[in-house]
Design brief:
The structure is a single chain. This protein has 250 residues and is of the alpha/beta class. It has a single domain, classed as Rossmann fold (3-Layer(aba) Sandwich). The protein is 39% helix and 24% strand. The protein is built from nine helices and nine strands. The strands form two sheets. It has a six-stranded mixed beta sheet, sandwiched between helices. The protein has a three-stranded antiparallel beta sheet with strand order 2-1-4, with helices on one face. Helix 3 packs across helix 4 and helix 8 packs across helix 9. The two termini are 31 Å apart.
């Protein structure tokens, strides 16, 4: 594996009975990239993420995360990767601080260090005023922001974000996108973001991959994918236009 290749899949395949959810998927993401992972519901994006995390065993092929096999080195991979699922789960009877303290304990972070990180993350995520409010009373947007804080508390090398701005109002979504960009820029965190919000993905991604029916049908910068489908010209195409072109032609 090349030194700067953080995520790699080779012929990665996942079958469920007679359904092939992921079909011989091969792609790579290099260190410091933000990679937009696109596709309709049921395309196989979440299944791919679960295999990369070692939470689902592939039917064929393999993957590597930071040079590690997620199945054989699941614990090591989880230390390096922060994962935000589409539906974040919490203990409803804990408040925001207690929730973050619990996650810090699970990750072996010392109390003094955790306390400073918790204060900083609640401030960044706009939850300082709700620090001692029970999570069960949080709105979906507040829970999403707390989920991001939980992901960041262990200072991950890689972020897997599955619909990270879902449930956020426009201002909250913009703040989160800005945060992802700053983490990538200032800490060189590699980001794989799966989202249906094509505008947000285009704004922050260095490259994108379009997945349909378990297959990666296109991969590259928005510009290179636009040129492949529309040719070279004066018009600049949006990611939405490029995505729909690939989607309709599959």
């Amino acid at each position: 594996m090349e030194a700067d290749r953080v995520i790699e899949t080779v012929s990665l395949t996942k079958n469920y009975d007679h359904h092939r959810a992921v079909n011989s998927l091969s792609f790579e993401i290099k260190e410091g990239e933000i990679f937009g992972f696109l596709g309709p519901n049921g395309a196989g994006k979440t299944t791919t993420l679960l295999m990369l995390l070692g939470l689902s065993r592939p039917s064929a092929g393999y993957s590597r995360v930071c040079g590690l096999d997620p199945l054989r080195k699941a614990r090591e991979v989880k230390r390096l990767v922060g994962y935000l699922p589409e539906n974040v789960g919490f203990y409803a009877d804990l408040n925001a601080v207690e929730s973050l303290e619990y996650v810090a304990t699970l990750n072996g972070i010392k109390r003094a260090e955790a306390s400073a990180k918790i204060h900083e993350l609640l401030e960044v995520m706009g939850l300082s005023q709700d620090a001692h409010k029970k999570v069960g009373a949080f709105s979906r947007g507040m829970r999403q922001r707390l989920g991001v804080a939980e992901v960041l508390i262990k200072d991950p090398r890689v972020l897997f974000l599955d619909e990270p701005t879902i449930g956020l109002d426009p201002d909250g979504a913009l703040r989160l996108i800005d945060l992802i960009q700053s983490l990538n820029r200032d800490k060189n965190i590699t980001v794989l973001i799966a989202s249906h919000n094509l505008y947000q993905v285009q704004k922050i991604s260095h490259r994108v991959g379009i997945m349909i029916d378990g297959k990666m049908v296109a991969e590259g910068s928005v510009q290179s994918l636009a040129e492949a489908k529309f040719g070279v010209g004066e018009k600049e195409y949006s990611l939405e236009e490029v995505y729909m072109k690939y989607f309709r032609e599959v």
